[in-house]
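With this grant's support, the team has encoded backbone shapes as discrete tokens. A representative record is reproduced below.
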Amino acid sequence: QVQLVESGGGLVQAGGSLRLSCAASGRTFSSYAMGWFRQAPGKEREFVGAISRSGGTTYYADSVKGRFTISRDNAKNTVYLQMNSLKPGDTAGYYCAGRQSIVVVTTADEYRYWGQGTQVTVSS
């Protein structure tokens, strides 16, 4: 079992950057594929990005490709989401998620463990 805690959200102007962090408890973080999702008010939770256990494979939603980068540091039990060129449409609660598997997936239902989320607000 792993517990996830996100941080790094906040208010930023359009065009700005933020880096989200997701710290995981436990000694088996390197056995978890990780994902980032977001949910805006009145909308369904949507996939943002995912990363394999080693960090060698990443996937992104088309809406963030080229602007967001997901990475991880297994020595620090942390996964990151670097967000550049932010747009007002990126405003949402951002959640990290983990699944103890070698397979990287993009659907929320496939992830068993979730953090509490961190809010990102992008002003125009």
Notes: The mean pLDDT is 97. DSSP finds no helices and eleven strands in the chain. The radius of gyration is 13 Å.
